[in-house]
Amino acid sequence: MNSNCTLKASLLIAITTIGALRAAPTETRSESETVKLFARESTITVLGRKAKVAALTQSNEEQGYSPEEVKGFHVEVVNQLPVPTSIHWHGLVLPNLMDGVPFVTQDPIPPGGSRRYNFPLQQSGSYWMHSHYGLQEQQLLSASMVIRSPKQSKVADAEFTVMLSDFSFTSPKDILKGLTVKKSAMNGKNRDTMSDSQPMSTAGQKESLVVQQWDETSKRLVAREVQAAAPDIDVKYNALLANRRTIDDPQVFEAKPGQSVLLRLMAAASATNFFIDTGKLDATIVATDGEDVQPLKGNFFQLSLAQRLDLLVTIPETGGVFPILALGEGVSLQTGVLLATPGTKIPKRPLALRPQRKMGGLDNTQEIHLRAKEPLADKPVQRSLPSVLGGDMMTYTWTINGATYPNRNSLNVKEGERVELVISNKTGMSHPMHLHGHVFEVTEIDGQKITGAKRDTILIPLKSTIKVAFDANNPGVCAYHCHILYHLATGMFTVLKYENADTKYWRPDGTPSELENPLELNNATAFWKEMTGLIAPSEPAISR
251 vs 270, 280, 346, CA distance in Å? Predict the structure, then answer.
């Protein structure tokens, strides 16, 4: 018995020591100035049923972290999960080795370990954070990150953040397993009997769908019903979530009559794009991916996976209850929140579990009308890089420039260049493409030149080609990938590599190990106790 306890204690010390060695801070700061974020298990209720998920919380249980731009970013990530993790700060321009991508910019954070992230902030607005390890993002290991600045505080009288997620009672490991099964194994199966993890397809059959269109008369983005083929969808989910709550129990935000309200909408899903329906409230897009745009009005908007959309609305003087709905692309699932004025009676079931109409596919309708408020400085392109997106739903493999990751391929640039990325989608599905550590401007959509929105994530609809431009001003090895989690996991990933970049952490051969260590939430506590005999993930692995 004593030897067993000694072994377990030694194991815990070894795990913690490894974490400390790998997580040495780059800058020394006092404990009071550093926010600790704990990667840990959590529980939510999905349609009346308890479910184990993961979370990124501070000591006071607050989700995520909202720093002030002038004070910089100072976080210690503490891993209380029984498997490694790594947290990426989505959309931030930051020192490359602070980016949080395992086997690209750092080693994973081991169980019981921690890592500090200290760097100045160059941006303000709507951002988010999420695990970049394996399939943990599907288990909701993510959180919002609003960067505050004096400029941001003047946008509206009130503001609310809404994180949108997708949820399945099927484990991510089993979802991926179902997706990678050969298509031939599904031949002859009725679509209605397919499991949550199997791809959905309409085989080109037309049906009544709701899509976004541009109303030329009113110069607004609106919803219209059309006859069209539904888009291909990877995963059939049980529910969509808004701030980790389902449609039967929506969050209610209180707003006063006549107030202007800024809605920070964040698409933190793993495989779902969204339409945003503001209903009776006219809304104006004022920012995309944290970057200001020229005002664009409507009441029906597109929000691709991993993007952020800042909408400005005004509460009518008469008051009332105003649903803000997020509807899943290609399905009839929806989620949402309520804006309500004081004293207004909230209906018992204010939002239907499913809308009566099915959503169509996202396209370039909105993107073609967006304009950056502060475009990139006029400068000729010095390097043009191809990014050809390929794949096969039959075998479920996804490629960039003909190759599946892991590999040693890279998109190569030199510091100081104006770079153009030509992203061509040769597949039958849309792909939200995210470039780490940079902000780019959309410059051309299917041959039409524009001075478009500045972003870090751009949706490339099927058979579409979009050009983006950016300045190569952040040296390192920067991840570039599709943000559909299961496309990333099966190959649609590469890196943008600067000349003479530090590549000590870039080890593509390590990537497969992420999928070999799945986060089994139902058994995590038992696993941890068996391994250490001392603490469970719900208890702090490192002193607060």
Answer: 21, 18, 11
By C-alpha distance, which of 114, 172, 57 is closest to 517?
Answer: 172
Helix axes 524-532 and 2-22, enclosed angle (nearest 10): 110
Structure tokens at 200: 């959905």
Supply the pLDDT for residue 534.
37
Calculate the alpha carbon distances from 406 to 138, 268, 492, 509, 517 in Å.
Answer: 21, 24, 9, 7, 17
Pairing of strands 411-413, 493-498: parallel
Strands 114-119 and 73-79 come out as antiparallel
Closest CA to 238 of 303, 161, 323, 175: 175
Q: Is the peptide bond before 375 cis (omega within 30 degrees of 0)?
A: no
> Residue 260 and residue 312: Cα distance in Å, rounded?
7
Beta-strand (E) ranges in 329-428?
Answer: 334-340, 358-359, 383-392, 397-400, 411-413, 418-425
Which amino acid is residue 295, in one-letter code?
P
Q: Which of 437, 439, 436 is nearest to 452 (CA)?
A: 439
Q: Is the pLDDT of residue 185 over 90?
A: no
- pLDDT, one tens digit per residue, over 273-325 is 999 999 999 999 999 999 999 999 999 999 999 999 999 999 999 999 999 99
- 384 three-class SS: strand
Nearest alpha carbon to residue 166 among 513, 425, 483: 483
- Give tens-digit pLDDT for 319-354: 999 999 999 999 999 999 999 999 999 887 777 665
With vertex at residue 119, the alpha carbon angle to CA 99 and CA 415, rounded to the nearest 5 degrees, is 65
- 41 touches 81 (CB < 8 A): yes
pTM: 0.88
What is residue 351's predicted lDDT score, i.e. its pLDDT?
75
> Distance of CA 101 to CAs 133, 358, 384, 494, 507, Å?
8, 36, 25, 12, 11
